[in-house]
């Protein structure tokens, strides 16, 4: 592969266009994965119609921010123990106040291992997929702009 400085304007334009198309392709993949993830989260919330009480066994929060922490809780349905994760948002003050505390666990009555703890299923990774998709989508016009500059001979 040639270095950028060793290319002609036409070669630079062609490489920039390929980067733009690749960026669009990657953006579509990330956004599609985000949509699929959000559909899964929403389906889980719809299926989990039963509620039981679980005990928080771990709490994770991002830095020292006041974002809703993610937690994991153990719960029991018909004598069988399960674990569920979720996002906790109501009345949160610190991770220490949640450890070993009771929390609502919403589960699917037909399949109790499908569940989420606290207020909602974990959605952090779904949002990250959308953000990555947007970043790649924003990059594509810059590559097309670079290609136009190369075609016009200004680069």
Task: Describe the model.
With 155 residues, the protein is of the alpha+beta class. It has helices at residues 9-47, 95-98, 124-152; strands spanning 50-60, 70-77, 80-87, 102-108, 111-117. A hairpin with a 2-residue loop joins strand 4 and strand 5. The two termini are 19 Å apart.
Overview features:
155 residues, alpha+beta, 5-stranded antiparallel sheet, 3 helices, elongated
- Main beta sheet: strand number and arrangement? 5 strands, antiparallel
Distance between the termini: 19 Å
Shape: elongated
C-alpha Rg, in Å? 23 Å
Overall pLDDT score: 85
With strands numbered from the N-terminus, the spatial order across the biggest sheet is 3-2-1-4-5
Layout of secondary structure:
Elements: H1 9-47, E1 50-60, E2 70-77, E3 80-87, H2 95-98, E4 102-108, E5 111-117, H3 124-152
Give me a quick take on this structure.
46% of the residues lie in helices and 26% in strands. It is of the alpha+beta class and 155 residues long.
